[in-house]
Structure formats: structure tokens, C-alpha cells
Amino acid sequence: MPQLTFLGATGEVTGSRYLLETEQAKILLECGLWQGSAKSERRNRASLKRLAKRIDAVVLSHGHLDHAGLLPKLVRDGFRGPVFCTAGTRELLGIMLRDAAHVMAKDLEWENRRRERADRKLLQPIYDIEDVEAALDLCEAVRFGKPSSVAPGMQLTLHDAGHILGSAIVELQMEGGGRRRRLVFSGDLGNADSVLMNTPARLEHADMVLLESTYGNRDHRPLDATLDELAGILATADREGGNVLIPAFAVGRTQEMLYHLGMLHHAGRLPQQKVFLDSPMAIEVTRLYDRLSHLLDAEDLEILRKAGGDDLARALPQLQLTQDVEASMAINRIRGGAIIIAGSGMCTGGRIRHHLKYNLWRQQNHLVIVGFQAQGTLGRLLVDGVRRVKLFGEEIAVKAQVHTLGGFSAHAGQSQLVAWAAGFRDRPVFQLVHGEPEAREALALALHAGHDIDARQAEPGDTVMV
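Predicted structure:
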């Protein structure tokens, strides 16, 4: 019988990786980076040579780094097989993996200088731009709803997950135990209330379902209430003469925030006259969203067009795109009246940390958290109410007002996850992944109580029969 081994994102939300084995083939489902915790760097550096030799192909649900960010390392360590994903994911990977390699190179340069001064062994890169280009060359685009052979005896069908551009629900059919078996992986299921994305596809048949559980313990606040709260924060910041900082993931969250800010502007609810998108990667991704707009929700795009925007940037006339470092540094001289959108979404790197250094200590400023903050990240510390943080070697007091707006999540909430799971007719076994322990446990209880669903919680390294 086919068997599945859990290699990552089990009891945690990053490092997605699952090994599917049949008598005829071995497929790696996802190849994600670990992020957030202190041990992430060591885990990301661990050799993948043995795994690279064993597998015939890789299947990716979408382009976020926690799902695909170690693909270049897999290639660096010897993998040369095909990588199957949607066309949208392939386009995003070109942006995200190149940026990841650039950031890693800069971080490695700094770390090796420190090691050299201490007479310690220098580190080699996890991967470099050549590994990224080699990985991208292996990517093969698969259309939504079209079955494709990915390995002997194994057929892949991708369905729209509604999470980010190109995101997919993965359906794999294979021979095992004398019959055809079906494994479904939800990927990251989208929030049906999110703009720009289509509603996640509903599937009915499977023997086993891997279900993400990021928000397995709660539902999101209604979007209308969230937008009202955001408008209130913007009005307060304008009245107090402060800036508004929005850490946002370059893919998905940034584009959603630009859409909502554009709508608030046209409704007369955006008093700020300066909105900065201070992220070269987010700018590039936004342009990709505009270029591949045929993959997005047609109704939302029509609303955008009627509001005067043929694309996300034009819907917000006060938007300024800051590509170079000098323009980014100039933003920190602005003492009030600006909205600053910058990465990274969990405040673990990128330009947002510079803006935090110059803004957190001023009580008239506002920090608006619009995405999930994993344990161990600076964003999580700020959400949890830490009063002082260290940025670039300097201790900074946290006096700015911190707001958490959960209604913008691109992930399904608990009720949406339960409703999606209840749509399967075959009563498959569910394995809950991509969630912190309390979220997995709460979702397992909700699935069992509401629909008598057999929801299990595998441990890292566990192997189960499909």
C-alpha cells in the first residue's frame, strides 16, 4: 500500500514536506523552508542528498517559501527530476526564490565576517542563485482540473485553493493494495471572504486528506468589521499626526491591502496622502498579479475597475513605489501622515524592521498586524505585548499602538475548514498539518464533534498507510 511520511509542518506552520511512496514511485509533496524559530537555520541547512536521490518528482501546492523555499537546496543536493505546480506558482517562484537567495547571500556575508573575526569556521550558502535557476528550469506547469501523469502509476490533478496566485489543492491518485487510492492535500485553503482570490474548490472523494490547520482554533472577524476598524485606525493616526506601519507578506497580503486601501480612498475614508509600498519583491509580485489578472476573481476586478483602477496601483493615486534603498531610507524622515507597507510579514527581516526602529518608540504611531505571526517571530512578540525590542543592535521601546486585524487572513478559519472537510463523501482519514499544537487539537475536536470525522495528528517522522 502507498505510504506517507511526515517530514515537516507537523505540529508547526512552516517547513512543509511529505514523502509519498508506492511500489512504482516516490513523490515529494512540498519542499518548504522552516521559519521563525531559533533552530530554523540549522534545520534548513540539513543535507537533502539522501532524499534527492530517492524521489522521482516534486509536487508543490503554491509558492510561499514555507511550502517551496528549500526547492533550490534539494536541487543543490542532487535532485534533477520534474517539479509540478501551476503556471501562477511557477511565475511566483521566479520572484520569491531569487529574492530568498539574495537575502541569504547578504545574511551569510554578515555572518561569515563575524565568524572570521572570531576565528570560526565559515558557512557555505544553503543555496545560491545558480541553484534557484536550476530549480526553476525543472518546473512544469499543470493546469487546474487537468489530470497529469507525474510518475509511473501516479496521476496529479490540481484544484484552485483560493489562497494566493496559483495556489492549489493537490489530488494524487495511485495504485495500491489492489485498488486505486486517492490522497488529497488542501495546501493552504483560502479564506472565502478574501478579495482577488477565487473560492476554494470543493472535493468529494479521497482515502486520506492532509488538511492545514493554521487557524484551526478560531474564526476570522467579519471583513466589513475589519475594514471599519482599519478605517478607524487610519483616522486616529491622521488626527494624532502619526504614521501607520503595515508589515505585509509580499505575496497575497500586500495585494489585498492595496485593494482595500484603494476602496477606502474612493469611499472617502483614507485621510493619508502618502502610501508607500516599500518592498521591491512586493512591487514585482503586484505587477505579476496585474499581468495574470485572468486567474483572479472577476467580480472583485470589476469592482476595482469601476472605482477607477485598471490595476491595483492605479486604484490608489497616493501610492508611491519605493524600489531603491535611498528612497526607503527617506521614508524614515517622515514624522506623520504616512502609511508604510513593507516586508516581511512577520517582521523577521526586510525593510519593515528599519521602519520599526524609527517608529515604534513614538506613541502617536500605529502598527497594524494583518497576518499570522508564528511563535518566535518579532511580529508575534509585538502582538503579545512586548515593551522593548532589539533592532540592529539597539534597544527600542514599544510605545506605538499595536493592532491585530485578523479579518484579512488569506487562510480559512475553523468553520471554513470544517465545512470544506465535511464535503468529502467517502469518510476519509484526515491528517492535520500546518498548525501549532493548540490549533490542531481544536480543529480535530471540531471535526469530530460536528461531523464525526476521523482527524489525526501525526508526529514528525511518522509514516502512515494511505
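Summary: The CA atoms of residues 399 and 419 lie 41 Å apart.
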